[in-house]
Amino acid sequence: MATAATATTIPRLLSPTTTHQTLRSTLSSFTKPDSLKTIRLATKLHVSSPTNKPISTTTATTKPTQETIFFDGGAHYGDLVANLLLGFTLVWLPLTLAAVLRGFFLRYRFTNLRVTVISGLTGQDRSDFSYKVVKDVQVVPRFIGEWGDVIITLRDGTKVDLRSVPRFREIAKYCLSMAEKKSGDELEEGGGAKGF
């Protein structure tokens, strides 16, 4: 009896209609059940201040912290064009590559509160510093003064070199004026000399 049962099942499995039905039932067992929900990756949100604290309504003692943008942009386009033209020589090729990377992956932002340099392929590399830490600002003009480098010296001796900045003279004057303003505000808040 067992041999008769196996003999009848083998021809049924080899027929085209039965094979299609068997594969369909086999594949349906591998599909996801409808009860499972799609798992989504949670993205982290970095918040600078806690959201559960109420915002105080007294503004008489606090300074306005609304950030206004003075300049927001990338490297000067003339730097990229000039380096691309000179890039046909093999000697200038590394400088051309640096100019292309500056042109596409570097942004400068100067606001009334801070200087921000955003770089990297996805903008993940970000450097911020306040005008309170700025000691000196110098400029180096490039290509007959169309664009230039801004070198900001911080109080701890660090030099921040911002290359191919458009409107570099205006930006340097703005940085110096904001640094003087912030240092003047610190002296007014401090009320005199500190120490022993």
Automatic annotation (TrEMBL):
<feature type="domain" description="YdbS-like PH">
    <location>
        <begin position="105"/>
        <end position="175"/>
    </location>
</feature>
<feature type="transmembrane region" description="Helical">
    <location>
        <begin position="80"/>
        <end position="105"/>
    </location>
</feature>
<keyword id="KW-0472">Membrane</keyword>
<keyword id="KW-1133">Transmembrane helix</keyword>
<keyword id="KW-0812">Transmembrane</keyword>
<dbReference type="Pfam" id="PF03703">
    <property type="entry name" value="bPH_2"/>
</dbReference>
<dbReference type="InterPro" id="IPR005182">
    <property type="entry name" value="YdbS-like_PH"/>
</dbReference>
<protein>
    <submittedName>
        <fullName>Aldo/keto reductase</fullName>
    </submittedName>
</protein>
